[in-house]
């Protein structure tokens, strides 16, 4: 296929991926809001159409960008310049995936002649509304899973909740015999009953709130917001009604 021809035409790094023996690097820990309140909305530029429907800003846009840049540097360092096949988990992971690619291109272009990555999109679903359903579904979007055979796969996700979705997704991908699978997630929630799943590259550990913005949604709303915010639960019926109205048209 095209990807394999690209690999043949590109000088491959001799060093295979290596990862810190101590395990994943530390992430940024966002304290519980009871301990340290999140940022006030009035301190930021918030889209007018969401201004009355949020509690606070949990992670400002600038901090997201700085963290994505550092994660890209860590990924480059660990993979030793080897080509990666990135799998973006739609839809919530799209914003983070796009920014991460920008920073990865910069990291690779400055240090190695290797093509940095190829990519595809998948859908991994377990959410309905604000709750995880526990039913895991993995769908390819315009790709054949055989493309990951013998390749280093980096699964890029927006948020890991209990970890059960990722824990179910990885075995599904492993049946196609990739050379390695690692997970990069922007967020991981601190939930009451986690599965113990460990994210290889994690941006932020966040408290157990339903968050929106930066492509994370509630019923398809809030994806267009740059910051990651805590939704005001009193606004949920409003968006339920809007979603129902939209579906009815």
Task: Report a brief summary of the structure.
With 249 residues, the protein is of the alpha/beta class. Helices cover 27% and strands 28% of the residues.
Task: Specify the number of helices.
Answer: 5
Judged by helices, strands and strand pairing, the structural class is: alpha/beta
Mean of pLDDT? 86
Sheet-strand content, in percent, reads 25-35%
For the secondary structure, the number of strands is 10
- The radius of gyration is 19 Å
Helix share, percent: 25-40%
Strand order of the largest sheet: 1-8-7-6-3-4-5
Give the N-terminus to C-terminus distance in angstroms.
Answer: 42 Å
Question: What about the largest sheet?
Answer: 7 strands, mixed
- What's the overall geometry? globular
User: Uncertain regions: pLDDT < 50 for 5+ in a row?
Assistant: 2-15
Instruction: Write the element-wise H/E pattern from the N-terminal end onward.
Output: HEEHEHEEEHEEEEH
């Amino acid at each position: 296929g095209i990807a394999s021809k690209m690999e043949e035409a590109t000088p491959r790094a001799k060093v295979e991926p290596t990862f810190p023996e101590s395990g994943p690097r530390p992430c940024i820990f966002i304290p519980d809001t009871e301990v340290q309140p999140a940022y006030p909305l009035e301190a930021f530029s918030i889209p007018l159409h969401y201004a009355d429907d949020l509690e606070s800003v949990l992670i400002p846009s600038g901090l997201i960008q700085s963290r994505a840049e550092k994660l890209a540097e860590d990924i480059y360092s660990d993979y030793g310049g080897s080509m990666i096949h990135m799998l973006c988990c739609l839809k919530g992971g799209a914003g983070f995936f796009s920014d991460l690619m920008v920073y990865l291109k910069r990291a690779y272009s400055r240090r190695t002649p290797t093509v940095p990555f190829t990519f595809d999109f998948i859908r991994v679903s377990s959410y309905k509304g604000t709750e995880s359903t526990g039913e895991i579904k993995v769908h390819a979007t315009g790709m054949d899973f055989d493309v990951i055979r013998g390749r280093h796969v980096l699964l890029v996700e927006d948020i890991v909740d209990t970890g059960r979705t990722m824990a179910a997704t990885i075995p599904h991908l492993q049946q196609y015999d990739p050379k390695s699978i690692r997970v990069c997630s922007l967020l991981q929630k601190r939930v009451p009953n986690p599965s113990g799943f460990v994210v290889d590259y994690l941006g932020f550990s966040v408290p157990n709130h339903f968050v929106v913005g930066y492509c994370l949604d509630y019923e398809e709303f809030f994806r267009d917001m740059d910051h990651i915010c805590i939704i005001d639960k009193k606004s949920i019926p409003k968006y339920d009604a809007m979603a129902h109205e939209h579906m009815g048209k």
